[in-house]
Amino acid sequence: MADLTTLANVKEHLDIESGETQFDQLLARMITASSRQIEAYCNRTFGITARTELYDGNASDILFLDHTPIVSVASVAIDEEAMAADEYKVYDDYVRLCSRLFTPGEQNVEIQYSAGFYDPAIESPPPDLEDACIQLVSFKYFMRGAEGITSRQVNKVTDNFASAAIPLSVALILDKYRRARVGAV
Length: 185
What we know:
The structure is a single chain. The strands form three sheets. Strands 1-7-3-4 form a four-stranded antiparallel beta sheet, with no helix packed on it. The chain is of the alpha+beta class. The protein is elongated and about 65 Å long. Helices cover about 25% and strands about 25% of the residues. InterPro entries: Phage_gp6-like_head-tail. This is Phage gp6-like head-tail connector protein.
């Protein structure tokens, strides 16, 4: 898993001079922690990742995959029978068979594919996602030392922090990337 932003971008946002290194280790740790927290919140990894997964055949011509957006499909096999590339079409979050159905069965469909939003080796994350990470790191940076505080009152105005694990401004960005947890209560 790659971090969703860089130390240089966070320091620029916080108006910390690039040559000032006093907080570099702290910020680097916060960047990694915030990146993992965002992936957990969204229930997905963002970097393009190759996967081999088994699915139950569903007697339909469409099979939704666990990880999206789908970048490419290397192979599809039903009951260990490999399908030719022209026998299926790939969409953002599912594979559709052209002339047959996914045979009903348990774990009888194997799909090798790649999914994600960007290639961390050569690309940056989508700008709004990187900005969300920068905002979360900044929030943690300014709140450090106050982890045990659940609320504060200033001039008869009370701020509650217990539910502020991810600030609303960050959650609003992340919600469009968030995957529902099927079967979760």
